[in-house]
Design a protein that fits this description.
Blueprint (H helix, E strand, L loop, with lengths): L2 E6 L16 H23 L3 E4 L11 H11 L6 E3 L12 H8 L6 E3 L6 E3 L4 E6 L24 E7 L20 H5 L3 E5 L5 E4 L2 E3 L15 E7 L7 E6 L4 E11 L3 H13 L7 E11 L1 H17 L2 E11 L3 H7 L3 H12 L5 H15 L3
Helix pairs in contact: 1-2, 5-6, 6-9
Length: 374
């Protein structure tokens, strides 16, 4: 009687990644969100699951182009079983909206089920019943899973709930959030499992209730991204087993490096090399690097060169150096004083109280290094 399911959520296909709009990275990250569907299909096939449950926010917004939905369906082809898609707050099931249009377009295969109504769906000849709680608008104040408690279901069936929202009693800062879900909904409704979406990290809410997180990471601040959950249900009322499966391509990492005060030039590159050595897959890593410490101008120049080499080894590098002090040392100033006119400018910048003066001095030093023979 054992039933296996793959629980995923928050694909957010079509996400703009506006913070990276200046280069190619945004397009690469959008493509990765489509590519992860193929890995989900492979995991589902390998585990011989009865269905893939997608707990909301399949799309990043409700104005997605039909071509994006067609590409999504193409990536699903590796798993021929049921894909159960629940509308979330990013892609609600508005009457006449994107999900109704997709259903009427002829592009939606029979094994892709759009759960746009709060009514039971029976699978496996009645052995499995899925109770969906679709969002019909972006934000609601009531608990869309409340109807689970009174649903009339076939006797002896494994009962699984599928919902998208927050759990105010568990998640910090969500007491006033829309789309609330009761902490004990699975117990109240007698569910064997409650599959949730909206929280982008894997999170266990209770013995039978989990958030799957997003299958492709999209945030520096959370761990537990880039996974899907393999759920094993031995039978009605039996203990559930949940195992996280890796699905993500990119790793989003936030690291802090304290360079100290006036480190040797060679030590700066060594510290960044050590950082890369600790990454599992540098070429697929989106890294936010926070730098602290204090450098002279020569040290800053060495750092810029080291950061250039580091950036080439990563998918993307974002540097935050507000906590890194850079100031000209006596040696820096003496080295640039070889020309009288240059010495005048250097002295003026060194004595200036203008907040932009240290930056100007650093840029002058970089230019001088490029032009100075030897």
């Amino acid at each position: 009687m054992t039933i296996r399911l793959l629980h995923t959520a928050d694909w957010q296909l079509g996400k703009s990644f506006a913070r990276f709009a200046g280069g190619d990275l945004a397009a690469l990250l959008r493509e990765a969100r489509l590519a992860v569907i193929e890995r989900l299909a492979a995991r589902a096939t390998e585990a011989d699951v009865a269905a893939v449950l997608v707990a909301g926010d399949v799309l990043d917004h409700e104005h997605a182009e039909p071509g994006l939905l067609r590409r999504m369906v193409h990536r699903m082809a590796g798993f021929p079983g049921p894909w159960l898609l629940l509308p979330g707050n990013h892609d609600p099931a508005r009457p006449g909206g994107l999900w109704d249009r997709f259903a009427a377009s002829g592009d939606c295969p029979e094994n892709v089920r759009l759960l746009t109504r709060p009514e039971p769906m029976t699978l496996l000849d009645g052995r499995l019943v899925v109770l969906p709680a679709p969002l019909l608008q972006k934000h609601v104040s009531g608990d869309t899973t409340a109807w689970f408690d009174t649903a009339v279901l076939p006797a002896g069936a494994v009962k699984v709930g599928l919902a998208h929202g927050g759990v105010p009693a568990l998640l910090p800062g969500q007491s006033e959030s829309p789309n609330p879900i009761a902490l004990d909904r699975a117990e109240r409704a007698g569910l064997d499992y409650l599959a949730l979406g909206d929280w982008h990290s894997v999170l266990q809410v209770g013995p039978r209730t989990w958030f799957s997180g997003t299958p492709e990471p999209d945030d520096f601040t959370r761990s537990g991204q880039g996974q899907a959950l393999l759920v094993t249900l031995p039978g009605p009322g039996q203990p559930v087993t949940v195992r996280a499966l890796e699905t993500g391509r990119h790793a989003w990492q936030a690291r802090k490096v304290d360079l100290g005060h006036g480190p040797a030039v060679g030590a700066i590159g060594d510290q960044l090399d050590a950082l890369v050595a600790g990454l599992a897959a540098p070429g697929e890593t989106v890294l936010r690097l926070t730098l602290e410490g204090a450098l002279d101008l020569a040290g800053r120049a060495a750092l810029e060169a080291a950061l250039g080499r580091l950036e080439a080894r990563l998918r993307h590098l974002e540097v935050q150096d507000e906590g890194l002090l850079t100031a000209a040392s006596e040696a820096d100033l003496a080295a640039m004083a070889s020309e009288p006119l240059l010495a005048e400018v250097v002295a003026a910048l060194a004595d200036s109280e203008d907040p932009a003066a240290p930056v100007a001095l650093r840029l002058l030093h970089q230019t001088w290094q490029r032009l100075e023979p030897g």
